[in-house]
What does this fold into?
Amino acid sequence: MAKTSPMEFFRQVRAEVAKVTWPSRKETTITTSMVFVMVAVASVFFLAVDAILSWSITSVLGLGS
It folds into this structure.
């Protein structure tokens, strides 16, 4: 593997960064909104699963209040 100088490395990094397709503000906003929606859906799902499991264990074992 050939060694490159630090300056050549930074030139290569800059060239690679120039190839990146950055998302627009609209795409970023939509993606962020979808992440928040999915987090809310997952939270409600796990809350329901936790409540069902808690209720079933309490009724089977007779523990808790």
In short: The mean pLDDT is 92. Residues 3 and 9 are 10 Å apart (CA to CA). The chain is about 80% helix and 0% strand.
